[in-house]
Amino acid sequence: MKLLDRVKEMRNDFMQGNGKANKKDKLTRQVAGVGRKLSHDEITNLYGDSRIVQNIIDIPAEDMTRNWFTLKMEDEQLARNIMSKLADLNAKKAFKEMFTYDRLRGDGFISLGVTQFPKFELDKKLEMDKLYSVDYLHAFSSMKVNDFLINEDVFDVKYGQLEQLCINRASSHGLQTQTTESSVHISRLLHSQTRRFEGEAQGRSLLEPLYDILTVFDTSVWSVGQILHDFTFKVYKSKDIEEMSSQDKKELSMIMDFMFRTEALAMIAADEELKKETTSVGGINYLLDYVWDLLASASRMPKTVIKGQESGTIAGAQYDVMNYYTRIVADQESEMKPHLEKLIRMLLMAEKELGGRIDPESLEWEIQFNPLWNVDAKTDAEIRKIVAETDQIYLLNNIVTSDEIREARFGQFGLSDTLKFSGDEADLKSLADSVYKGYSERNG
User: Fold this and answer.
1) Helix, strand, coil distribution of the chain in percent, nearest 5
2) What is the model's pTM?
3) Which whole number is the average pLDDT over 403-422?
C-alpha cells in the first residue's frame, strides 16, 4: 500500500478529533464524582502543612465563638453567675475547638464532666435531676471514637441521631500505654456534625471535597515559586562555545555565574554578547485569580477572610464579607445555640453550682449572640452621612418631626459608638450599595 493511501486510512476529520465516547475520547476518560476518603493522617498533614488550610478550618470556628453571647434573664445576678461559671469551665475555648474538629475531621465533641449522686455509668443517660456539679469540658474529635451507634429506624422519633459512642480512653505514662474503651451515652456529650452522608456513621471532613482544589492551589504556589526563582537569567553568546568540552562549559558556567552575580562589571570580547532574559508572566494573574475564586467559592469564605483580614471589620462595600458573617450568625443559631442551652440547663439543674437546683422552665431566659462585625471608621462616617441626609429629606417633606428623628437616632443614651443593622441579606446589600455609590461619587 502506498504511503498516501495509508495516510488516508488514518486520517480523522479535524472536528471529530479522536471520536466521541470511545476509549480515546479525553472527555469520556474524565470521570466526575471520584471521591477521595482521607485518613486521619492525611488530614493532619494537609492541615499542618498549609496556613491557608488552617485559615479555612479555623477562622469560621473562631468567628462563631469570638464575641460570645449575652444571657438575657430577669435575675441579672443569676445571669452573671452563669456566665462566670462558663468562663471558669473555659466553655468558649471548648466550643471553638469542637467546631474546629467538626470542620477538620467531620465530628467535634465536648465531654461533659459531671458529678452525680448516686454513682453513675457512662453508658447510661444523664439524669438532670441527679446532677450535683459540672466540673469540666473537654473538646475532642472522632480520632478518639472507635464506633458510632446511629438510630436507623425511619419510624422512630430519633431517626438519624447518634445514641451511643465507643470511645478510646487510652492514657500514657512514660513508655507505658494503658488502653481502655468505654461506651458513652450521647447525653453525656455535646456533638457537632454538619456533613454526614446517609448510610454513614461518621461525618465528612471539609478537606475531602476541597482536596482537588487544594491540590491545584498548592501547584500554583509551587509554580509561582519556580518562576520567581528563575525570573531572570543571563544568556552568554560566544563563537568559542562550540569548541569547548562539556567539562570546560561547566567550569565556565560556574565562574561566570559567580562573577556576574557579584560584580557589576562584565568584561567580554567585542564579538561576544551577554544579556539578561526575563521570564514572561503575562496573564498569570488571571490564572491565580481563578484558583482563588474557586477556593473561596468551595469553602464559602471570601478571599479577604481566607487571607486573614482583621476579624469583624468591614470596609466599604464588602458585600461578600457581610454575607459571610450573616452565614456565621445562622450557624450560631442552628448549630451552637442548642448546645449552649443544654449546658446552661445543666448548670441550673446542678445542685451545687448556683446556690441550689433551679428549674429552667420556671425562668424567662434567652441567649443573644453579640454582633460579629462593625464597619471601619471611614465607612461608619459615610453611613452616618447618608442616614443624616435621608433624615433631612424626611424632615423637609414633613414625613417625620425633629423629635421623632432625635428619638430614633439618638434615643435615651445619645449617639451610639457603633451602628447596628439587621442581618437581612437585602438590607446588607442596600447598605453596601449606598456606601459604595456615595464613595464613588466623591472620588470619581
Assistant:
1) 50, 15, 35
2) 0.74
3) 58
